[in-house]
Design a protein that fits this description.
Layout: H1 2-30, H2 35-39, H3 45-49, E1 55-60, H4 67-81, E2 86-90, H5 97-109, E3 114-117, H6 122-134, E4 139-142, E5 154-157, H7 160-175, E6 183-187, H8 193-207, E7 213-218, H9 223-236, E8 242-245, H10 248-261, E9 267-272, H11 275-283, E10 288-293, H12 298-310, E11 326-328, E12 333-334
Parallel strand pairs: 1-2, 1-3, 3-4, 4-5, 5-11, 6-7, 6-8, 8-9, 9-10
Antiparallel strand pairs: 10-12
Helix pairs in contact: 4-12, 5-6, 7-8, 9-10
């Protein structure tokens, strides 16, 4: 009896499937558009490049207290300047949360068309970003995420976890035949989620080739901090095979400490992609053999997205007629073999 019921159930399912297939076929032949028509939903590259309605974009970021942030700010200004239909209203860079909130409040009161915001503290700027969104002003969040999905129309991020993965993978490729290799890590500010993400990616990538982090110190993204942390690391570890330093700005101090200690038995990988680091990689005359890109173009990308959104345009190379609400940029490895492809976008430490 059970087998008969099962058989009948299969017949019913088969019949429904057949009817559905006929319905789909009829729909395709009778009422659907052609493939060309179905994907031609958004604006084209030519339409995006063409001058549109003039839009005012407010931009606020932290103080440019090191090279990467300086490049972030200058990149935003340069991106806005290339569009004749963009007026940029830039606030003075600040690490004072209260001052940055006030800058965003000014943008809201001035009724700008869009806001690009690299917050000094993502959580602290979330409330005012939500206020802007509720006022109908799209917010493009850059680098440091807000704590609510309602605070931004689109978010542009570097890949911190991916940086760690790229660094660990490169070191695995160089030291894969040395299972007992000593791998050291010079992190940035340990309390920051971005540092924690970079370290997690690094650890995970190393584990894939049987390596781990043998020694680790943290610095503070400054030259002085990098030199102090590296000096401590080198003193405590007489033999090292590879070092990953999270940040090329602090890497100037790291390299100074290495030179002072007269150490050269290891390879070093940097992070962020400064021009100084790339020139050293190009010269190939130091322990620095690679760096991992953390794009300083994020705010420039934010300006470009803000213009598209404010003008009602779309990301032309995507089929979906919209602008993505989250973009995570790549974290490629730069070596002497490909440094020429990246050095023009590098920032000065």
């Amino acid at each position: 009896m059970r087998s008969l019921r099962t058989h009948r159930a299969r017949v019913v399912v088969a019949g429904v499937a057949a009817l559905a297939a006929v319905g789909l076929l009829a729909g395709c032949t009778a009422g659907s558009t052609s493939a060309e028509e179905s994907v031609d939903q958004g604006t084209t590259s030519e339409e995006n490049a063409a001058t549109g309605d003039t839009v005012t974009i407010g931009f606020s970021g932290p103080a440019a207290d090191h090279g990467w942030l300086g490049a972030i700010n200058s990149g935003a200004l340069a991106a806005a300047a290339k569009y004749p239909d963009v007026t940029l209203q830039a606030a003075e860079g600040t690490n004072d949360v209260t001052a940055q909130i006030a800058a965003v409040e000014t943008f809201i009161n001035d009724k700008v068309d869009a806001i690009v915001l690299l917050p000094s503290d993502g959580a602290a700027l979330t409330e005012v970003a939500i206020k802007a969104m509720q006022a109908g002003i799209p917010v493009i969040n850059v680098d440091r995420e807000f704590s609510s999905p309602f605070a931004a129309r689109s978010t542009v991020l570097g890949d911190n976890y991916g940086m760690g993965v790229s660094a660990g993978t490169y070191i695995c490729e160089q030291l894969g035949d040395k299972p007992g290799a000593v791998v050291a890590e010079i992190a940035g500010i340990d309390s920051l989620p971005l540092t924690q993400d970079r370290s997690a990616g690094f650890k995970d990538a190393l584990s894939d080739c049987g390596l781990d982090v043998s020694a680790r110190v943290a610095a503070d993204f400054t030259v002085q901090g990098g030199e102090a942390a590296a000096s401590q690391l080198l003193s405590a570890n007489p033999q090292i095979d590879a070092i990953w330093n999270h940040d090329d700005d602090q890497g100037i101090g790291v390299l100074a400490a290495i030179t002072s200690a007269g150490r050269d038995e290891f390879i070093m990988v940097g992070g962020a992609g400064s021009k100084n680091a790339m020139e050293a990689i190009q010269a190939d005359d130091s322990v620095l053999k690679a760096t991992i890109i953390y794009p300083s173009t994020q705010a420039a990308d934010g300006i470009a997205l803000a213009r598209l959104i404010a003008q009602g345009k779309t990301a032309s190379d995507l089929i979906t007629p919209s602008v993505p609400n989250r973009i995570v940029l790549d974290a490629p490895v730069v070596t002497k073999d490909n440094v020429a492809d990246f050095i023009d976008l590098a920032f000065e430490s």
